[in-house]
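Hi L.,

You mentioned the student needs an example of a multi-chain input paired with its predicted structure. This one should do, with 357 residues in total across all chains.
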Amino acid sequence: MDSLQAEQAAREKAAFWDGVRISAPTMPGLVAWGAVTGMVLVQSGLSVWQAIVMTLMVYAGSAQLAVLPLIMAGAPVWLIFLTALLVNFRFIIFSAVVGPHFAHLHWTRRLWYGYFNADLVMAFFPQRFPQHTLAKPTGKLGYFTGLAMPTWCSWQLGSLIGILLASQIPRDWGIGFAGTLVLLGLTIPLIVNRATLAGVIVASAVSVAASGLPYRLGLVVAMLAGIATSVTIDRITVSATDQEQGKS
Amino acid sequence: MSAIDYLLLMVLMALTTAVTRSFFFLLADSRMPPWLQHALGYVPAIALAAIIAPDLLMSGGQLAINPSNAKLLAGIAATIFFLLTRHLISTLAFGMAVFTLLRLFAPAL
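Structure written out for the whole complex:
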């Protein structure tokens, strides 16, 4: 029994280092991205401690950048929360890729591991453990941790460097615009079909048109309008495809 | 925003991270209905677009879709660069370079 457990532990350890090795080349980029985010947090007006607390707790770059203008405009907490939630919705999709592999764990451990299932982890995990390996848990926790731990460390290291450097950089360099550019770079690959593109265009237009509303409520109106547009176009496209398939 | 409000907000935001990332860790045995999978697929792009559009398309609270809007020009340049390279960090560097050059050398724009 003991030797079996030792063998198991050795396998998890080997899987951990496999995870570290395979994700290592992407870590410098992650440090750089973290540094930019940290810099933007402070340059946009958060204090150093506010930025550090946000980075360590929230651990979601795009949501952190997205809520900055809302915090600065004094928007109500519920609206900022809603914005972070909507921006984080993509993680639900990511969790559908990795989550089922950990169905055998207690729910508190699933919540814990899930919290660390960031973009990079989701990208690497299925390369080694595709869907057909669902029934075989060996090596998964080790490999997942081998991806998740360097990801967390690199991101936090970069963020802290950025936060501490930010005060050395003059405000008029316009570093804050880097946040918008990062969000732009994250948005483009998410526009995967016409329904999404239409929703993005409508949301952008409505967001500009409704920007005068108090508490940045225009943001909610814009998101709802965009989602309604995408859902409608999705419905039309799907029913059109169904009809075509019905004909043939 | 008071320190307490800020901490409350950080806890709520950390919860959005934890709950969305662990969603199908917790519901590991259930399957998403296809319509929900579709809907979740486009929500983040729409939310992000609604956030960045005013910064790119407006200046001083007014609509500014014209060549004197440095952010809009830099945004367009960054979009083209990203579509060609698909590389986030270099797109960021390129976009900031364009933005900075426009601000420094075309202040009259």
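You could point out the following to them. Chain A touches chain B through 91 residues (CB under 8 Å). The first helix of chain A runs from residue 2 to 23.

Best wishes,
N.
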